[in-house]
Each structure stands twice: as C-alpha cells, then as structure tokens.
Amino acid sequence: MSAARTDTEDVELANTAFYEAVERGDFEAVADLWLDERYGGVSCVHPGWPVLSGRGEVLRSYALIMANTEYIQFFLTDVKVAVAADTAVVTCTENILSGGPAEDGAELGPLVGQLVVATNVFRRTPDGWKVWSHHGSPVLAESDDEDEDAEGAV
C-alpha cells in the first residue's frame, strides 16, 4: 500500500494535467480543470493579452488557442509549489514549442520556441484542485548576466 499523496504532489499533478490537456487540445479536460464559478471568479492572462475574467471568457480563449494551434508542447522547468490551506500557487517556466497550420502541403507548419513565466493559482474543491487563475508573461531577457554586461557597456 502506498502512502497518501501530499497536497503539494496533488497540486503538481493538477498543474501537469492542465498543460497536458492543452497539448492534446482537449477542451473538455481543460474546462474540467478550471474552477467552477460558484467558488469565485476565475481570471487568465495569456502573454500579450488583456486580463480575461469569468469562466466563459477564459474558456473561450482556450478554445480559440486550441483551434488555431496545430501543435503545442510545454516543457515545464523551475516548477515551485506553495500550498496554504485551500489555496496553492505554482510558478514555472513554460518552454513552449508550437506550430501553426502547414503550408505548401507540409504535414506541420514551422515550429516556434518561446519562453513564458507562469503563475497558476489553484483552489481546493471537493473535486480536487482546480485552476483559479493563470498568468503568463513572455521572457524578454535571456539572463541577469546579459543585463549586467549591457549596463557596463557605455
């Protein structure tokens, strides 16, 4: 018999399930992972988008993204989980590989890599941990070392 999972492990599993559902383009799974409105309003910020508020608006955004993305894969790094009572915060770096529609009869369009730092807030419900808020911001700087080099050069 295995030991019971910790809240941290359960949140990590919910976070992974969220990204895997988006990768598969499984709208029903994505919708099931978002918090129901009876527990409070949800919000989402995709990189370069305005704040989306409310379950309907947030889920419409995922439907649009999945309908217009031929291929997407997330490699999550720097994953950190903090749990306090019925709320959990996950921060991570989304190393994203994606591609749009194919051109000239190719099977897949050109692939593009992108780095996004994300904060996912989860809330515990009787049905498990659900996404309450997602905020993704593009990484525009490579590292702090490059910033220091640029500041030193006059």
Automatic annotation (TrEMBL):
Residues 11-139 form the SnoaL-like domain. Pfam families: SnoaL_3 (PF13474). This is SnoaL-like domain-containing protein.
